[in-house]
# Entry
Amino acid sequence: MNGEWEGGRVGAPLPRFARAELDFTDGTRLVLVDSRALATLDVHPAGVDLALGLGPDAADPAWTAEQLGEALASRRGPIKPALLDQKLVAGLGNIYAAESLWRARIDPRLSARELVPSRVKKLRQAIARVLDRATGSRYTDDDRVKLDVYDREGKPCRRCRTPIERIVQAGRSTYFCPVCQAD
Ligand SMILES: [Zn+2]
# Structure
């Protein structure tokens, strides 16, 4: 969850924490700004199929609830780790997976394959809302106060005031409300 692209004109002063600059022939440029220097940038020849094995882009509006449901139906194990598998969906990190499940009122421990279509649809909508909200805002530790559930262990759920719980799934922290994400 580091780094963002900032548009501008070639030759303008570089922003603080600029890590890479792409100049275009029309005089515009894109600058990779990353205060923590954790982003990586891969450069490949044009037209090469990278065969990265990535699933659909989580931010792609063309990615449907039906596709998500099909992918989940063949999964073993709980929903939350499944959402972090980049082969199932690309670009949904640990924070946004937790936020999406909270928004869709889904227990992160629920078996991925047991999610019925109506709830898959809610989850797909929740992912879109969470990513919409994240886009355009520089995402730093300071912004965690804006999160609904992530990193809020012991704090009251923003919907029902129940203390948020933290568990570990597949080595990653999962935050959820035990009341409004009870199934
Ligand atoms: Zn709650």
About this structure: The chain has a mean pLDDT of 90.
